[in-house]
Target: NADP-dependent oxidoreductase
Amino acid sequence: MKGIGINHYGDHRELTIVDLPDREINANEVRISLRASGVNPIDWKLREGYLKEALPFDPPLTLGWDGAGVIKEAGKSVDAFQVGDAVFFRPELTEYGTYAEEIIVEEALVQPKPENLSFAEAASLPLVGLTVIEALMEIAELKSGQRLLFLGGSGGVGTIGIQIAKALGAHVTTTSSEKNRAFVKARGADTVIAYDQQEEPDGEFDVLFDTVGGSAYAEALPYLKTGASTVSIAGGASQNDAVSKNEEKKRIHANNMFMQPTKKNIAQLRTFIDQNQIHPVISHTRPMTVDGAKQAHLDSESNRTRGKIVLVRENEEEIT
Ligand SMILES: NC(=O)c1ccc[n+]([C@@H]2O[C@H](COP(=O)([O-])OP(=O)(O)OC[C@H]3O[C@@H](n4cnc5c(N)ncnc54)[C@H](OP(=O)(O)O)[C@@H]3O)[C@@H](O)[C@H]2O)c1
Model:
């Protein structure tokens, strides 16, 4: 199964063609011909070897865990899909990623591609959408009328997170650099705090969603209500004794999370799209080639991406 990945951990120059062994599909799985793959920071963090302890992969592996494509083969017990259906999905985190010609995925993690979205748009949504749904709906249980402080509104997670929080009826205050103020406002943020202009949040918050981590999380704690909930996807919660002490003082429900894809949450994502409540935000696309992936990784590593980067495979062409 040909794709783009690594034989050794290292910088973007390690990206190369990788051909992993094929296998038969199980009864509950589908084989999907990929047309686009989202690019996420986990792709280059894993490539560098930063996640070796948490995710002990033994390369070779193909990268990318965010996809859209067309069903090529359906297992015996699959009833929701047929060969030829266009779909989008976030597969389990295995050595078989979505920078590839095809991938085998459990039926439960796949949803029909919304007709009004291109393959690139659809592939930009699963990983970030599922992350936000798990954080805001399942962990923080964000309610209509609550005040949310969102750290990092302009990135891949932030641009979808603001839209989902607004769909849930929350009041959204987000941080961003001054240059992205109008951009995050246009995604629906009620208030923007420019972190590079020494601006401070106004009032207190029920929920904190942290996509930045480190001091950004620690410095947000004074603005939370007693008993507030925090969810960090960047290791911010209880990151050291001082932070834990400040969380305890305010009886904060503090959570770090690592997203797990579920059937319920990919279906919820599809519902938000169908109800016109969220719209993809693509910074730019690159071809699904080794050179395109190298460039996309350099772009993502800059930590300045607005919305998402997507790799596109036109007309199911061979990956080179
Ligand atoms: N645990 C999980 O399950 C999970 C899931 C998804 C993502 N993540 C992690 O969450 C983080 C965000 O992911 P992503 O896809 O949104 O990344 P991304 O798209 O690469 O984020 C880039 C954005 O971050 C903003 N940013 C950088 N520093 C900032 C700061 N100090 N304050 C506010 N905004 C800042 C930048 O905006 P400015 O130019 O305006 O600063 C840029 O728009 C990554 O570390 C990723 O690995 C974790």
